[in-house]
Amino acid sequence: MEQxxxxxxxxxxxxxxxxxxxxxxxxxxxxxxGMKFMNVDKSxxxxxxADLSAQPFFAKxxxxxxxxxxxxxxxxxxxxxxxxxxxxxxxxxxxxxxxxIRGDHxxxxxxxxxxxxxSVENGKKEIALWxxxxxxxxxxxxxxxxxxx
Length: 149
Ligand code: UDP
Ligand code: MG
Description:
The chain is an alpha+beta fold.
């Protein structure tokens, strides 16, 4: 099954949104395969966002990500990359639909609470970067109640 990398950004942690965010993925029927509460340093944040290094907001973005602890997670499930992005909502919170995480909890693009991988391939890269030691192995006993196969 597909996996995605999800990170609750420092504003999400400070604002007490960890439980709400985890709950949305859990209740949907996705499986938590890795989770770390951690601070990241500048070079690590630059590596995570390397694709955006030419953007004018890059330096501010890196400062934002290193401004406090983050929750790094791996979630697994059918179509979890795309559906995870839909649960998160549009990058710019004013374009994010109500009911999405950013639609419900964010105002500014530079304070948009959460990161989610944008493709299966980038998800694999991000998981390797953030979880070099591998992931937890488990299968939910509820699996047949959520998935047909
Ligand atoms: N960002 C920003 N200003 C912008 C666009 C993006 O500060 O004009 C930040 C924002 O926090 C966003 C992150 O850069 O989540 C990564 O941008 P991306 O386009 O990858 O959006 P995402 O995949 O997070 O929706
Ligand atoms: Mg992105």
